[in-house]
Specification:
The complex is a heterodimer.
Chain A lengths: L21 H21 L8 E8 L1 E4 L6 H4 L4 E2 L3 E3 L4 E8 L5 E10 L6 E7 L1 H7 L6 E5 L5 E12 L10 E8 L2 H32 L24 H13 L18
Parallel strand pairs in A: 2-9
Antiparallel strand pairs in A: 1-10, 3-9, 4-9, 5-8, 5-10, 6-7, 6-9
Chain B lengths: L4 H32 L4 H7 L3 H21 L1
Helix pairs in contact in B: 1-3
The chains are: A alpha+beta, B mainly alpha.
Chain lengths: 268, 72
């Protein structure tokens, strides 16, 4: 033992009996692996992944044209094929292509196959389209939120207000997909946090029980008294023990002041 | 006052090792999750502003960190 070093202040390695056994180490890692597999198994909304529905070419009417055909096209809607929507899901709408100038308004209605009710949303592509168009990816997104489960169609129509006297009719395309709503996300988030929290709690309880059952343990956790009892490594994870032992083994002989009969203190 | 430099160095080495191992384990787990996800996480969050995916991904990150911390 080095001179001037009190036993209480010296980190010591535990006897082999108080160390994590290979079986405990294996169980710990197997449990951690199983939990990670569980997390991976959920695979982030595999049950409700973002699912592409349509890529639509939106019919666009023009206001301000010399031969104003807005009236004609006012009822020129595009109806999509029917599709199933799960409860709480959103329908995400992205205007992926449109005119770089003027104001384009695309109206999308969610039309149930049965029942008169419908939800509408409008995508206005004005300055945002122009600004984001500079990057080459004009995009305006929104979504129909929290629709009830059912069988729906989409009714789509667009109106463009260009320069006075403008006669051209711009093209617009719309990407439609479903995605999980926020309420669903919170349920998944809670589940994904409860599982590892439960694991951490059980792991801690397991270690304490193992420490109580171990005949060589029993030193105070805080390590305050220098009673020369074997160190209590009950809160030390098996992996920590293994690495600590490795570091101790690699330390040049004599540089550690106390290696075998050290007391209870352990400073992680 | 006596300073036990050997224990200090040993604790420092252990801390660095555990930190590095935890970060590597976390990075591997996150990479696997991103790999098995049947869509682009970056596109969904950055371009399509998928709030739900952001919420779930945040909880996954915290969950992985908890498991890694408890395991090591």
């Amino acid at each position: 033992m080095s001179a001037g070093v009190s036993p209480a202040a010296t980190p010591s390695r535990a006897p082999a009996e108080s160390r994590a056994s290979p079986a405990e180490l294996l169980k710990t890692w197997l449990l951690a692996g199983l939990l990670l597999c569980l997390l991976f198994g959920m695979r982030l909304f595999l049950q409700e992944p973002p699912h592409a529905l349509f890529d639509l070419t939106v019919p666009v009417s023009v206001r301000g044209a010399p031969h104003d055909d807005a009236e004609e096209l006012a009822h020129h809607f595009l109806y999509t094929e029917p599709f199933d929507l799960h409860g709480g899901n959103n329908i995400a709408l992205s205007l992926t292509r449109g005119p770089a100038d003027g104001i384009l308004a695309v109206t999308v209605d969610l039309v149930p196959e049965q029942g008169p009710s419908m939800h509408g949303v409008e995508l206005f592509a004005a300055e945002r389209m122009s600004i984001q168009g500079l990057s080459g990816q004009p995009r305006v997104s929104t979504s129909l939120r929290g629709a009830e489960a059912g069988h729906y169609r989409l009714r789509v129509a667009g109106t463009w207000i260009g320069q006075p006297g403008e006669s051209r009719r711009p093209e617009a395309t719309l990407a439609v997909k479903t995605e999980a709503g926020s309420s669903t996300a919170f349920w998944w988030a809670a589940l994904l946090l409860i599982v590892p929290a439960l694991f951490a709690t059980l792991r801690s309880l397991w270690r304490r029980q193992a420490a109580k059952a171990a005949p060589t343990s029993g030193g105070p956790v805080d390590g305050s008294p220098a009673d020369h009892s074997p160190p209590d490594n009950s809160d030390e994870a098996p992996f920590v023990s293994a690495v600590s032992d490795t570091i101790s083994a690699l330390t040049p002989e004599g540089s550690l002041s106390c290696t075998s009969t050290g007391p209870a203190s352990y400073s992680p | 006052m006596h300073i036990d430099w050997s224990s200090l160095v040993q604790s420092l080495i252990e801390s660095v090792l555990f930190t590095g191992f935890g970060l590597v384990a976390f990075a591997v787990a996150f990479y696997i999750i991103a790999a098995v996800t049947p869509f682009s996480i970056r596109k969904e969050i950055e371009e399509d502003q998928n709030t739900a995916l952001g919420i779930v991904l945040g909880s996954v990150i915290i969950g992985i960190a908890m498991v890694v911390a408890a395991a090591i």
